[in-house]
Amino acid sequence: MTRLLKVAAAQVGKIDIDTPYEEVVQRMIALLDQAHDKGIKLVNFPELTFTTFFPRHIIPFGPELDKWYQKGDVTKFDPFKPFFEKAKEYGIAVCVGYAELTDDDEHYNTSVFVDQAGNNLNKYRKMFLPGDKEPLENVPWQHLEKRYFLEGNLNWKAFRWPGTGTGHGGPIIGQLICNDRRWPESWKILGLQGAEIVCIGYNTPVSNVVEPGKASQMVNSDSSEAMATFHNELCLQYNSYHNCCYSLCSARTGVDDGKYSLIAGTTIVDPQGVIIAKSKTNEDELVWAEIDLDSCYPPRNRAFNFARHRRPEEYKLIVEQKGVKEPAPLEDEM
Ligand code: CDT
């Protein structure tokens, strides 16, 4: 049996701090145009697709910060509407990241999955927030996600995507946002719900603060870009492999404001962990493939047959303990 589906991971290039929504939306529509020409049914977009990665900046709380967020149904937000309307016109489902402000004034790093008829099928809020709550001193840029967002509270919910005609009760979809992809817990919870396609968007700086306060470790260099790209692929490939799923992984990339570099490496990974399509630029680019959802099942029925091989009764430590507790040190080795 085959259950074929054309899917895409849209990479979005540089967005400066003053790039207007309208410009980004037109670029996103151009990516949808390409997808439509190819008969693609699902396009995944990056984390915080519509704006520059604002958590790198120190922004005062209140209206100045809140202008980066959207309240209410994001598909009805005027500047974004042309994008969602075009996706609906083309009959393309989209998964898109944005900054969400709730009616209770809670801030989340969120992605929505909107089906080809324009229905909001699922909302996901980033669970693993990286970076800091308080700005670091002596660093050329910040990573203030812990300051600007609350930790996600919608868990990792897999859901069925209707209307694709691929049988088997409809494709099973899961969402992750950026740093979530580094944590096997996220993937396994989706894997345990049978997720067949995991949609991921990311903003990964070319270089990071390795040790807080050490500004010297934040320089851009080819080796740090290569390492960041290696870690990206490592996470996507291994986690797709042991959960027997496809992943669509979309980068926000380019050099924002002429100085903030984000890695590219938008990829589509298959259930064997193989990269089957990958971006070639660090600009707007549509990465696509025709996938066979049924290829999730041979490994699910054998090497990664969870019901047969997993040992949840032995995993207590994982749920009961948060940090590392080392065995007592050996006296004569001190
Ligand atoms: N956006 C995001 O989550 N970026 C992280 C890098 C954070 S380093 C402080 C990532 O996992 O790519």
UniProtKB/TrEMBL annotation:
The record, for InterPro entries, names: Aliph_Amidase/BUP, C-N_Hydrolase, C-N_Hydrolase_sf
Domain CN hydrolase as annotated: residue spans: 5-293
Gene3D superfamilies noted in UniProt: Carbon-nitrogen hydrolase
PROSITE patterns attached here?
CN_HYDROLASE
The reply to whether Aminoacyl-tRNA synthetase figures as a keyword in the UniProt entry is no
A single Gene Ontology MF term assigned here is:
hydrolase activity, acting on carbon-nitrogen (but not peptide) bonds, in linear amides
UniProt KW keywords: Hydrolase
- What protein does this entry describe? CN hydrolase domain-containing protein
The organism encoding this protein is Ogataea haglerorum
